[in-house]
Amino acid sequence: MYQTDFSTEELASRRKRVLDAIGSNAMALIQGGVKPPAHDLFRQTNDFYYLSGVEVPHAYLLIDGRDRSCALFLPHQSPQRKEQEGEILSAENTNTVHRLTGLDAVYGIEELIKFLEGVKVLYTPLRMAEGAMMSWDTLRRSQQEATSDPWDGRPDRMRAFVALLRQRCPSAEIHDLCPIIDEMRLVKSPQEIELLRKAGKLSAIGIREAMRVTRPGIWEYQLDAVMRYTYLVNGARDAGYRAIIAGGTNIWYSHYCANSAQLADGDLVLVDSAPDYHYYTSDIGRMWPINGQYTDVQRELYGYIVEYHKVYLELIRPGVTSEQIIAEAAERMRGVIERTVFSKPVYEKGARATLEFPHHMSHPVGMAVHDVSHYRGKLLQPGTVLSLDPSLWVPEERLYIRVEDTVLVTETGVENLTADAPLDLHDVEQTMKQAGMLQSFPALR
User: How far apart are CA 32 and CA 55, in angstroms?
Assistant: First the structure.
C-alpha cells in the first residue's frame, strides 16, 4: 500500500523545502500518475513519489504555504474493487494514510476544488510527469511528435491539467514548480544513494551475465532478456529504460534500441541497460567482442576510451565544475595520444576529436536515467550522481565507441556505482569464457 524506503521524516523535510521555496502566500499542487489502461502494474510519477511516497493513481498533493500544511487528496475505492484487488490507500482509510505518510490531512479527490478557492499564487510542475521508463527528454520528444501529427495534436496530461487550473482558478498566477523540485532532486540523500548503489550493482550483474551468454548467432533481444531476469529476480520493477543492445553496424546509432538483430562473429556489441529499482535507476555501457576476443583494432579504439574513462575516475571530485574536470582529463589524454601509434590516421583523428568533446560527463542519474536538473557550470556537490560516458567517433568508417558508468560525487572524490561490471579488456574476455544462463537454458528452436 505504501513505500518503505524513506522515512516520514525525510519526506516531510522535502515538502518543507518546497514550503520554504514557494513562500507564505502560495500553494503548490502536484498531480499524481494515472491508472494504466493496460494490464500493467501502476507506477507513481517521480515528482509525486519524491514528495509523498504514495503509490495510488489519480492522487493529488496540496502544499499550502499560507498555513504550512500538506494535504493528500485520494480517489475512493469501492467495496467491489477492494474485494477484487485488495485494499489500497484511499479516502476510506484516512487513519492508515495519516500513519504511513505523516501528511496533515487526507480528503476525497472531489474536495480538492474547495481548497483552491481564492488562491492567488499556485505552483505546479510545468513539464510532463515521468513514469515508468520515462525521462524529461523522451517525454518532450513524444509530445513534439504528437503535436506535429495532423491527425493527433492533443495536449499532454500536464497541459490539460494546467488548462483546467486556469479555468477553475481564474484569479491564480500559475508558476512552474519544476525548478524547485529539480534542484532538490539533483543532490541525493543518503537513503537515495543506497537505492542507487543497489541499482548500480544490479546493472553490473546484468552486464556480467550478458557477457557470459554472448556467442555468435544469438540475438540482441536475448541479452536484454537475461539482464531483465537479473533485475526482476532481485526485486526491481523491470528495466529503467529500453535497453540499447547494438551489434555490429547497429552500434553507429548511439541510441539504437530495436534489439532485433543477430550477433555476428568478429563484431562488437554495445550494451546499455539498467533496472528500475524502487523508483531509482542507473546508467551503464560496455562493449565486448561477440566471439570473446577483441581484434587489434577493437583493442586499439576501445582500449583508448577505457583509458580515458579511468582518467575521469581519478579526477572527478567536489568543489570544481565538470568543465574543469573535462579540461583536465583532455590534457592528461593528450600525452596518451602522443605515445600511441594508431593503425590508421582516421583513428588518431577520432581520438584527438574526443579531447574537444564537451559532454563526456553526460547527465544526472536518479529517479530517471536522464534525470532532471543539471550540474554543468556549477561546482559539483557531494551527493550528485551522474553518467560518465567518454565516447569516440570515426565517421569515415561509421565507428562509435563508448564506455559508461554511473558515478557518485563524494566528500573526497568519486564512487563508481557500477564498478562491478568488467571494464578492463582482459577482464571482459575472461568473463566471456564463463558459461551463462542461455547455455544452461537454451532458447526454443
Answer: 9
